Amino acid sequence: MTDVEHAQLAPFTTFGVSAVCERLITVGTVDELREALRRYPDARILGGGSNILVTQNVEHPVIRVALRGIALDDLRVTAAAGERWHDLVTWCVDQDLGGLENLALIPGTVGAAPMQNIGAYGVEQEQCFVQLTAVHRQTLEEVVFTKDQCHFGYRTSIFKEEARDQYVITSVTCQLTDHPHRLHTSYKDVAEELLQHHAPLTIRDVYEAVVAIRRRKLPDPAEIGNAGSFFKNPVVDAETFSRIHSQHPEVPSYPQADGTVKLPAAWLIDQCGWKGARHGAAGVHDRQALVLVNHGGATGAEILSLALEIRSSVQAHFDVELHPEVNIW
Ligand SMILES: Cc1cc2nc3c(=O)[nH]c(=O)nc-3n(C[C@H](O)[C@H](O)[C@H](O)COP(=O)(O)OP(=O)(O)OC[C@H]3O[C@@H](n4cnc5c(N)ncnc54)[C@H](O)[C@@H]3O)c2cc1C
Fold first, then answer.
1. I need a surface site. Which of 68, 134, 182, 206 has the fewest CB within 10 A?
2. How many angstroms separate the alpha carbon of residue 157 from the centre of ligand 1?
3. Does ligand 1 come within 6 angstroms of the Cβ of 294?
4. What's the pTM value of the predicted model, to 2 decimals?
5. How far apart are CA 71 and CA 76, in angstroms?
Protein backbone atom coordinates (compact mmCIF):
# COMPACT_ATOMS: atom_id res chain seq x y z
CA MET A 1 0.00 0.00 0.00
CA THR A 2 1.28 3.46 -0.83
CA ASP A 3 -0.14 6.61 0.71
CA VAL A 4 0.84 9.96 -0.79
CA GLU A 5 -0.36 13.27 0.62
CA HIS A 6 -1.54 16.08 -1.70
CA ALA A 7 -1.23 13.95 -4.80
CA GLN A 8 -1.76 15.33 -8.30
CA LEU A 9 -4.59 13.42 -10.03
CA ALA A 10 -3.87 14.51 -13.64
CA PRO A 11 -1.72 11.43 -14.46
CA PHE A 12 -4.44 9.14 -13.08
CA THR A 13 -7.37 10.33 -15.22
CA THR A 14 -7.71 10.23 -19.01
CA PHE A 15 -8.99 13.83 -19.15
CA GLY A 16 -5.63 14.76 -17.63
CA VAL A 17 -6.98 17.84 -15.87
CA SER A 18 -4.96 19.21 -12.99
CA ALA A 19 -6.38 18.68 -9.48
CA VAL A 20 -4.90 17.69 -6.15
CA CYS A 21 -6.51 15.22 -3.75
CA GLU A 22 -6.04 15.18 0.02
CA ARG A 23 -4.13 11.90 -0.28
CA LEU A 24 -3.84 9.08 -2.79
CA ILE A 25 -3.72 5.56 -1.40
CA THR A 26 -2.94 2.72 -3.79
CA VAL A 27 -4.05 -0.74 -2.64
CA GLY A 28 -2.83 -4.05 -4.09
CA THR A 29 -4.75 -6.59 -1.99
CA VAL A 30 -8.20 -6.96 -0.43
CA ASP A 31 -6.65 -6.63 3.03
CA GLU A 32 -4.96 -3.37 2.04
CA LEU A 33 -8.28 -2.14 0.66
CA ARG A 34 -10.00 -2.98 3.96
CA GLU A 35 -7.27 -1.18 5.91
CA ALA A 36 -7.52 1.89 3.66
CA LEU A 37 -11.33 1.97 4.02
CA ARG A 38 -11.01 1.59 7.81
CA ARG A 39 -8.61 4.56 7.93
CA TYR A 40 -10.42 6.69 5.35
CA PRO A 41 -14.12 5.78 5.33
CA ASP A 42 -15.03 8.82 3.20
CA ALA A 43 -12.48 8.04 0.46
CA ARG A 44 -13.39 8.23 -3.22
CA ILE A 45 -12.60 5.21 -5.38
CA LEU A 46 -10.44 5.44 -8.49
CA GLY A 47 -9.80 2.80 -11.14
CA GLY A 48 -8.18 3.85 -14.40
CA GLY A 49 -9.75 7.33 -14.27
CA SER A 50 -11.26 6.96 -17.77
CA ASN A 51 -14.81 7.82 -16.74
CA ILE A 52 -14.21 10.67 -14.30
CA LEU A 53 -14.05 14.45 -14.75
CA VAL A 54 -12.35 16.12 -11.77
CA THR A 55 -13.70 19.68 -11.59
CA GLN A 56 -11.91 20.89 -8.45
CA ASN A 57 -9.34 19.81 -5.89
CA VAL A 58 -10.64 16.74 -4.07
CA GLU A 59 -11.04 17.36 -0.33
CA HIS A 60 -11.15 13.62 0.28
CA PRO A 61 -8.65 10.79 0.27
CA VAL A 62 -8.74 8.81 -2.96
CA ILE A 63 -8.19 5.02 -2.98
CA ARG A 64 -6.79 3.66 -6.24
CA VAL A 65 -7.71 0.02 -6.73
CA ALA A 66 -4.68 -1.89 -8.05
CA LEU A 67 -5.57 -5.51 -7.19
CA ARG A 68 -4.06 -7.91 -9.74
CA GLY A 69 -4.64 -11.45 -11.00
CA ILE A 70 -6.52 -13.40 -13.66
CA ALA A 71 -7.63 -17.03 -13.17
CA LEU A 72 -9.54 -19.42 -15.39
CA ASP A 73 -11.82 -22.13 -14.01
CA ASP A 74 -13.33 -24.21 -16.80
CA LEU A 75 -14.87 -21.50 -19.02
CA ARG A 76 -15.18 -18.90 -16.28
CA VAL A 77 -12.55 -16.21 -15.93
CA THR A 78 -12.13 -14.22 -12.72
CA ALA A 79 -10.07 -11.05 -12.79
CA ALA A 80 -9.06 -8.78 -9.94
CA ALA A 81 -10.52 -5.28 -10.00
CA GLY A 82 -7.25 -3.50 -10.78
CA GLU A 83 -6.48 -5.44 -13.96
CA ARG A 84 -6.81 -3.36 -17.12
CA TRP A 85 -10.04 -4.35 -18.86
CA HIS A 86 -8.39 -4.52 -22.28
CA ASP A 87 -5.63 -6.78 -20.90
CA LEU A 88 -8.33 -9.18 -19.65
CA VAL A 89 -10.03 -9.18 -23.06
CA THR A 90 -6.69 -9.82 -24.80
CA TRP A 91 -5.83 -12.59 -22.33
CA CYS A 92 -9.13 -14.35 -23.10
CA VAL A 93 -8.64 -14.00 -26.87
CA ASP A 94 -5.11 -15.41 -26.48
CA GLN A 95 -6.67 -18.52 -24.87
CA ASP A 96 -9.07 -18.68 -27.84
CA LEU A 97 -11.99 -18.00 -25.53
CA GLY A 98 -14.77 -15.68 -26.61
CA GLY A 99 -17.35 -13.46 -24.98
CA LEU A 100 -15.43 -10.24 -24.33
CA GLU A 101 -13.92 -9.51 -27.77
CA ASN A 102 -16.49 -6.84 -28.75
CA LEU A 103 -15.46 -4.93 -25.61
CA ALA A 104 -11.78 -4.74 -26.63
CA LEU A 105 -9.85 -1.51 -26.09
CA ILE A 106 -12.34 0.01 -23.63
CA PRO A 107 -10.02 1.88 -21.26
CA GLY A 108 -10.11 1.43 -17.50
CA THR A 109 -10.12 -1.38 -15.00
CA VAL A 110 -12.04 -4.62 -14.53
CA GLY A 111 -13.52 -3.35 -11.24
CA ALA A 112 -15.14 -0.31 -12.84
CA ALA A 113 -16.64 -2.23 -15.75
CA PRO A 114 -19.81 -3.39 -13.91
CA MET A 115 -20.37 0.11 -12.50
CA GLN A 116 -21.87 1.30 -15.78
CA ASN A 117 -22.24 -2.10 -17.46
CA ILE A 118 -19.73 -1.16 -20.15
CA GLY A 119 -20.87 -1.76 -23.68
CA ALA A 120 -19.70 -1.42 -27.25
CA TYR A 121 -20.35 -2.79 -30.73
CA GLY A 122 -23.54 -4.65 -29.86
CA VAL A 123 -22.43 -6.24 -26.56
CA GLU A 124 -22.80 -5.16 -22.94
CA GLN A 125 -20.78 -6.61 -20.09
CA GLU A 126 -23.89 -8.11 -18.47
CA GLN A 127 -24.15 -10.61 -21.37
CA CYS A 128 -21.14 -12.57 -20.10
CA PHE A 129 -21.28 -11.49 -16.47
CA VAL A 130 -21.52 -14.21 -13.80
CA GLN A 131 -20.77 -12.50 -10.49
CA LEU A 132 -18.51 -10.04 -8.71
CA THR A 133 -17.05 -9.68 -5.25
CA ALA A 134 -17.08 -6.37 -3.41
CA VAL A 135 -16.06 -5.04 -0.02
CA HIS A 136 -18.82 -3.26 1.89
CA ARG A 137 -17.48 0.13 2.88
CA GLN A 138 -18.90 0.06 6.43
CA THR A 139 -18.69 -3.60 7.51
CA LEU A 140 -15.52 -4.25 5.43
CA GLU A 141 -16.93 -7.69 4.61
CA GLU A 142 -16.42 -9.13 1.16
CA VAL A 143 -19.72 -10.11 -0.43
CA VAL A 144 -20.79 -11.70 -3.71
CA PHE A 145 -23.21 -10.08 -6.16
CA THR A 146 -24.83 -12.34 -8.75
CA LYS A 147 -25.90 -10.95 -12.12
CA ASP A 148 -29.51 -10.48 -10.98
CA GLN A 149 -28.40 -8.61 -7.89
CA CYS A 150 -26.41 -6.10 -9.98
CA HIS A 151 -29.56 -4.62 -11.63
CA PHE A 152 -27.72 -3.94 -14.86
CA GLY A 153 -29.23 -1.49 -17.33
CA TYR A 154 -28.03 0.77 -20.12
CA ARG A 155 -24.78 2.26 -18.70
CA THR A 156 -25.94 1.63 -15.15
CA SER A 157 -26.06 -0.88 -12.31
CA ILE A 158 -27.00 -1.05 -8.65
CA PHE A 159 -23.57 0.47 -7.90
CA LYS A 160 -24.55 3.74 -9.61
CA GLU A 161 -28.05 3.75 -8.10
CA GLU A 162 -29.39 2.06 -4.93
CA ALA A 163 -25.97 0.93 -3.66
CA ARG A 164 -24.07 4.02 -4.78
CA ASP A 165 -20.84 4.57 -2.74
CA GLN A 166 -21.52 1.50 -0.59
CA TYR A 167 -19.16 -1.09 -2.12
CA VAL A 168 -15.72 -1.35 -3.64
CA ILE A 169 -15.61 -4.03 -6.32
CA THR A 170 -12.66 -6.41 -5.88
CA SER A 171 -13.11 -9.01 -8.65
CA VAL A 172 -15.37 -9.85 -11.59
CA THR A 173 -16.19 -13.29 -13.04
CA CYS A 174 -17.27 -13.67 -16.68
CA GLN A 175 -18.58 -16.65 -18.61
CA LEU A 176 -16.57 -17.36 -21.75
CA THR A 177 -17.26 -19.62 -24.68
CA ASP A 178 -15.07 -21.79 -26.90
CA HIS A 179 -17.72 -21.76 -29.65
CA PRO A 180 -16.84 -19.16 -32.28
CA HIS A 181 -20.34 -19.46 -33.76
CA ARG A 182 -21.57 -17.35 -30.85
CA LEU A 183 -19.75 -14.31 -32.26
CA HIS A 184 -21.58 -10.96 -32.30
CA THR A 185 -20.92 -9.50 -35.74
CA SER A 186 -24.21 -7.86 -36.73
CA TYR A 187 -23.33 -4.37 -35.43
CA LYS A 188 -22.93 -2.25 -38.59
CA ASP A 189 -19.30 -1.14 -38.12
CA VAL A 190 -18.18 -4.64 -37.13
CA ALA A 191 -20.03 -6.28 -40.05
CA GLU A 192 -18.42 -3.82 -42.49
CA GLU A 193 -14.95 -4.29 -41.01
CA LEU A 194 -15.29 -8.07 -41.35
CA LEU A 195 -16.53 -8.00 -44.96
CA GLN A 196 -13.14 -8.90 -46.39
CA HIS A 197 -12.76 -11.88 -44.03
CA HIS A 198 -13.70 -15.32 -45.29
CA ALA A 199 -15.79 -17.63 -43.11
CA PRO A 200 -15.31 -19.20 -40.67
CA LEU A 201 -14.67 -16.13 -38.53
CA THR A 202 -12.64 -16.53 -35.36
CA ILE A 203 -12.83 -14.81 -31.98
CA ARG A 204 -9.55 -13.08 -32.86
CA ASP A 205 -11.00 -11.75 -36.14
CA VAL A 206 -13.76 -9.97 -34.21
CA TYR A 207 -11.29 -8.71 -31.59
CA GLU A 208 -9.00 -7.31 -34.28
CA ALA A 209 -11.92 -5.73 -36.13
CA VAL A 210 -13.08 -3.94 -32.97
CA VAL A 211 -9.53 -2.78 -32.18
CA ALA A 212 -9.11 -1.46 -35.74
CA ILE A 213 -12.46 0.39 -35.66
CA ARG A 214 -11.74 1.94 -32.27
CA ARG A 215 -8.21 3.01 -33.25
CA ARG A 216 -9.63 4.70 -36.35
CA LYS A 217 -12.69 6.34 -34.80
CA LEU A 218 -11.97 7.20 -31.18
CA PRO A 219 -9.51 9.75 -29.85
CA ASP A 220 -6.66 8.15 -27.92
CA PRO A 221 -6.44 9.66 -24.40
CA ALA A 222 -2.65 9.31 -24.63
CA GLU A 223 -2.79 11.93 -27.41
CA ILE A 224 -5.76 14.09 -26.39
CA GLY A 225 -7.45 14.09 -22.98
CA ASN A 226 -10.99 12.70 -22.99
CA ALA A 227 -13.27 10.23 -21.21
CA GLY A 228 -15.03 8.68 -24.19
CA SER A 229 -18.74 9.46 -24.54
CA PHE A 230 -19.52 12.34 -22.22
CA PHE A 231 -23.31 11.85 -22.30
CA LYS A 232 -25.54 8.77 -22.39
CA ASN A 233 -27.79 8.28 -25.40
CA PRO A 234 -31.20 9.61 -24.29
CA VAL A 235 -34.21 7.31 -24.34
CA VAL A 236 -37.40 9.21 -25.23
CA ASP A 237 -41.10 8.32 -25.32
CA ALA A 238 -42.85 7.57 -28.64
CA GLU A 239 -44.53 11.01 -28.73
CA THR A 240 -41.22 12.87 -28.35
CA PHE A 241 -39.67 10.67 -31.02
CA SER A 242 -42.47 11.31 -33.51
CA ARG A 243 -42.18 15.09 -32.92
CA ILE A 244 -38.43 15.00 -33.62
CA HIS A 245 -38.89 12.61 -36.53
CA SER A 246 -41.48 14.87 -38.20
CA GLN A 247 -38.97 17.76 -38.12
CA HIS A 248 -35.90 15.60 -38.89
CA PRO A 249 -36.94 12.46 -40.81
CA GLU A 250 -33.26 11.50 -41.03
CA VAL A 251 -32.87 11.15 -37.22
CA PRO A 252 -31.16 7.81 -36.40
CA SER A 253 -33.19 5.86 -33.83
CA TYR A 254 -33.15 2.59 -31.91
CA PRO A 255 -36.64 1.42 -30.87
CA GLN A 256 -36.68 -0.26 -27.44
CA ALA A 257 -38.84 -3.22 -26.38
CA ASP A 258 -41.03 -1.02 -24.13
CA GLY A 259 -42.03 1.38 -26.93
CA THR A 260 -39.47 4.06 -26.05
CA VAL A 261 -36.79 5.10 -28.54
CA LYS A 262 -33.07 5.55 -27.97
CA LEU A 263 -31.55 8.49 -29.85
CA PRO A 264 -27.82 8.97 -30.50
CA ALA A 265 -26.67 11.88 -28.30
CA ALA A 266 -23.86 12.47 -30.82
CA TRP A 267 -26.39 13.20 -33.58
CA LEU A 268 -28.38 15.62 -31.37
CA ILE A 269 -25.19 17.46 -30.36
CA ASP A 270 -23.94 17.56 -33.93
CA GLN A 271 -27.26 19.02 -35.14
CA CYS A 272 -26.77 21.85 -32.65
CA GLY A 273 -23.47 22.67 -34.36
CA TRP A 274 -21.08 21.61 -31.61
CA LYS A 275 -18.77 19.24 -33.46
CA GLY A 276 -15.23 20.64 -33.35
CA ALA A 277 -16.29 23.61 -31.15
CA ARG A 278 -13.69 24.96 -28.80
CA HIS A 279 -13.96 27.06 -25.64
CA GLY A 280 -10.38 27.80 -24.73
CA ALA A 281 -8.62 24.50 -24.19
CA ALA A 282 -11.90 22.61 -23.67
CA GLY A 283 -13.53 21.33 -26.83
CA VAL A 284 -15.79 18.94 -28.68
CA HIS A 285 -13.91 16.39 -30.77
CA ASP A 286 -14.01 17.23 -34.47
CA ARG A 287 -15.09 13.72 -35.53
CA GLN A 288 -17.04 12.56 -32.44
CA ALA A 289 -19.55 15.12 -31.16
CA LEU A 290 -20.16 13.00 -28.06
CA VAL A 291 -16.54 13.21 -26.91
CA LEU A 292 -15.39 16.30 -25.02
CA VAL A 293 -11.66 16.86 -25.10
CA ASN A 294 -8.91 18.63 -23.23
CA HIS A 295 -6.75 20.26 -25.90
CA GLY A 296 -4.12 20.84 -23.22
CA GLY A 297 -4.35 22.79 -19.98
CA ALA A 298 -8.16 22.86 -19.73
CA THR A 299 -9.55 22.76 -16.21
CA GLY A 300 -12.25 20.29 -15.22
CA ALA A 301 -14.54 23.26 -14.50
CA GLU A 302 -14.07 24.53 -18.08
CA ILE A 303 -14.93 21.13 -19.52
CA LEU A 304 -17.97 20.88 -17.25
CA SER A 305 -19.12 24.34 -18.27
CA LEU A 306 -18.89 23.35 -21.95
CA ALA A 307 -20.86 20.17 -21.18
CA LEU A 308 -23.60 22.22 -19.49
CA GLU A 309 -23.82 24.54 -22.50
CA ILE A 310 -24.15 21.57 -24.83
CA ARG A 311 -26.87 20.09 -22.64
CA SER A 312 -28.83 23.38 -22.61
CA SER A 313 -28.55 23.73 -26.35
CA VAL A 314 -29.86 20.18 -26.99
CA GLN A 315 -32.67 20.87 -24.52
CA ALA A 316 -33.56 24.11 -26.33
CA HIS A 317 -33.41 22.58 -29.84
CA PHE A 318 -35.04 19.21 -29.21
CA ASP A 319 -36.59 19.40 -25.72
CA VAL A 320 -34.53 16.33 -24.84
CA GLU A 321 -32.47 16.12 -21.66
CA LEU A 322 -28.95 14.72 -21.81
CA HIS A 323 -27.43 12.99 -18.78
CA PRO A 324 -23.68 12.64 -18.30
CA GLU A 325 -22.18 9.18 -18.58
CA VAL A 326 -18.97 10.53 -17.03
CA ASN A 327 -18.75 10.72 -13.22
CA ILE A 328 -18.26 14.33 -12.11
CA TRP A 329 -15.97 14.85 -9.08
C1 LIG B 1 -11.41 6.75 -25.25
C2 LIG B 1 -12.47 6.15 -24.36
C3 LIG B 1 -13.38 5.25 -24.88
C4 LIG B 1 -14.36 4.67 -24.07
N5 LIG B 1 -15.23 3.79 -24.63
C6 LIG B 1 -16.18 3.22 -23.87
C7 LIG B 1 -17.08 2.27 -24.45
O8 LIG B 1 -16.99 1.92 -25.62
N9 LIG B 1 -18.02 1.73 -23.65
C10 LIG B 1 -18.14 2.07 -22.34
O11 LIG B 1 -19.03 1.54 -21.67
N12 LIG B 1 -17.29 2.96 -21.75
C13 LIG B 1 -16.32 3.53 -22.48
N14 LIG B 1 -15.46 4.44 -21.93
C15 LIG B 1 -15.63 4.82 -20.52
C16 LIG B 1 -14.70 4.04 -19.53
O17 LIG B 1 -13.63 3.46 -20.22
C18 LIG B 1 -15.45 2.95 -18.79
O19 LIG B 1 -16.54 3.50 -18.08
C20 LIG B 1 -14.55 2.20 -17.80
O21 LIG B 1 -15.22 1.09 -17.29
C22 LIG B 1 -14.07 3.08 -16.64
O23 LIG B 1 -13.08 2.35 -15.95
P24 LIG B 1 -12.06 3.07 -14.98
O25 LIG B 1 -11.30 2.02 -14.26
O26 LIG B 1 -11.25 4.05 -15.73
O27 LIG B 1 -13.04 3.80 -13.98
P28 LIG B 1 -12.85 5.20 -13.25
O29 LIG B 1 -12.98 6.28 -14.25
O30 LIG B 1 -11.62 5.19 -12.42
O31 LIG B 1 -14.12 5.19 -12.30
C32 LIG B 1 -15.42 5.26 -12.82
C33 LIG B 1 -16.43 5.15 -11.66
O34 LIG B 1 -16.34 3.85 -11.08
C35 LIG B 1 -15.95 3.93 -9.71
N36 LIG B 1 -15.03 2.82 -9.48
C37 LIG B 1 -13.88 2.57 -10.14
N38 LIG B 1 -13.35 1.40 -9.72
C39 LIG B 1 -14.20 0.91 -8.78
C40 LIG B 1 -14.21 -0.28 -7.97
N41 LIG B 1 -13.26 -1.20 -8.04
N42 LIG B 1 -15.26 -0.44 -7.11
C43 LIG B 1 -16.24 0.47 -7.02
N44 LIG B 1 -16.27 1.60 -7.74
C45 LIG B 1 -15.28 1.81 -8.62
C46 LIG B 1 -15.33 5.31 -9.54
O47 LIG B 1 -15.47 5.78 -8.21
C48 LIG B 1 -16.14 6.13 -10.54
O49 LIG B 1 -17.37 6.50 -9.98
C50 LIG B 1 -14.45 5.03 -22.70
C51 LIG B 1 -13.52 5.93 -22.16
C52 LIG B 1 -12.53 6.48 -22.98
C53 LIG B 1 -11.53 7.42 -22.39
1. 182
2. 13
3. no
4. 0.95
5. 8
Q: Which helix (H) or strand (E) holds 59?
A: strand 58-65
* Residue located nearest, by CA, to atom 8 of ligand 1: 120
To which H or E segment does residue 27 belong? Answer: strand 20-27
| Amino acid residing at 248 | H
CB burial of 86-124 (b: ≥16 within 10 Å; e: otherwise) equals bebbbbbbeeebbbbbbbbbbbbbbbbbbbbbbbbbbbb
Domain co-membership, 16 together with 120: no
Using a 6 Å cutoff on CB, does residue 43 contact ligand 1? no
Ligand 1 proximity of 228 Cβ (cutoff 6 Å): yes
> Do 115 and 132 belong to one domain?
yes
**How many Cα atoms are found within 13 Å in the side-chain-facing hemisphere of 116?**
18
Residue after which a domain boundary falls, among 161, 196, 217: 217
Tell me whether residue 155 is one of the annotated catalytic residues: yes
- The pLDDT score that the predictor gives to residue 198 is 81
Q: Does residue 246 have an active-site annotation?
A: no
**Domain residue limits at 141:** 70-217
Rg (CA), the chain: 20
8 Å CB contact between 54 and 64: no
pLDDT tens profile 83-114: 999 999 999 999 999 999 999 999 999 999 99
pLDDT digits (tens, 9 = 90+) for 193-215: 999 888 789 999 999 999 999 99
Q: Which atom of ligand 1 is nearest to the CA of 111?
A: 41
84 and 12 in one domain? no
pLDDT at 180 over 80: no
Last residue of a domain, one of 168, 192, 217: 217
Number of domains in the chain: 3
Q: Single out the catalytic residue among 23, 44, 64, 155.
A: 155
Residue 170 Cα to ligand 1 middle (Å):
15
How far is C-alpha 311 from the chain's CA centre?
20
CATH (domain of 20):
3.30.43.10
Predicted confidence (pLDDT) per residue in 301-314, tens digit: 999 999 999 999 99
302 is annotated as an active-site residue: no
